[in-house]
User: What shape does this take?
Amino acid sequence: MSKRHHTLALVMIAMFAALTAIGAFIKIPLPVVPFTLQIVFVFLAGCLLGSRNALYSQLIYIGVGLVGLPVFTQGGGIMYVLQPTFGYLIGFSLAAYCIGFIMERIKTPTKKHFIGATIMGLILIYAVAVPYLYVALNFWLDMKSSWSHVFAIGFLSSIVADFCLAITSGLLAERLYKVFQSARNVKISQVERENVI
Assistant: This one.
C-alpha cells in the first residue's frame, strides 16, 4: 500500500469512528436499549471501507470509549462491558467486517448487493446483541428477565426502524461508493505517475 493510500485509509477509519460516536448521541430514549443512528455509520463503513478498515473504525470507537471517553450512549469506561447494550457494540464490529467482506467479493456492486449486505450485517448485530442482553440482565445485573421480555426490548422495539435504516444505508452507500472508489483511484494514479517520473 502506498503512503498516500495508507494516509487516506487512516483518515477514513478515524472519520467513521467519529461518526459512530456522533451517532450515539442522536437517539430516542427507550427502556434498557435506546434507539440510535450509530448503525447507519456501521453500515456505511462496511460498504465503503472494506472489511479490515471497517472493522478498525469500530474497534477504535470501542477502544476510545473503554479507556474512558464518554462516546457511548451511556458514557464510557472499561466497566461499560457490563452494560446490557455492549453486545450491540460487539455486533457493530462484526457487522462492519462482514459487510465489507461481502462487498469486497463483488466486482461491480449494485443496489441489491448493498442492501443485501447491510441486511446481513443487521442480522449479525442482533444475533450477538440479544443473547448478550439476556446474559447481562440475568447474570451480572441481577435483573431477572425472560427471553420473551429480552426479545421485546432488544429486538422488537427497534427492528423495524433498523431494517429501514439498513435499506436506506444501502441506497446511500451505492451513491457514495463511486466517490470513495474515485478518491482511492486518484491517489493510486498520483503515486503511479510519481514512480514513473
